[in-house]
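Annotated sample (chain length 121).
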Amino acid sequence: QVQLVESGGGLVQSGGSLRLSCAASGSIFRINGMGWYRQAPGKQRELVATITSGGSTNYADSVKGRFTISRDDAKNTVYLQMNSLKFEDTAVYYCNANVRRSFYGLANDYWGQGTQVTVSS
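Output written by the structure step:
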């Protein structure tokens, strides 16, 4: 099995910063893409940022210039540095990883349990 555990969420004031971490563990041969998603109350889950195994990144327009996604393959961990936080960033943030568990196995998506980020106005 593969487990993803997020950490770093919490309460922060507008304009502040927060850094989320997501560590993958279990049966892992190779992690392909990784990403962060979020879901605000009353809204659908949306993509925040993704990063490929080669380090290419993609961001939602709403977070460009403020958020930075990165990964540490030695630790099987993906990070999301969030700066200049706004009230509208308030949501549950979920990490995602596409994981190949063996050389001949197919890759599957795995999700973390989510971590709450609350930005006060």
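Annotation: The radius of gyration is 14 Å.
Annotation: The first strand starts at residue 2 and ends at 7.
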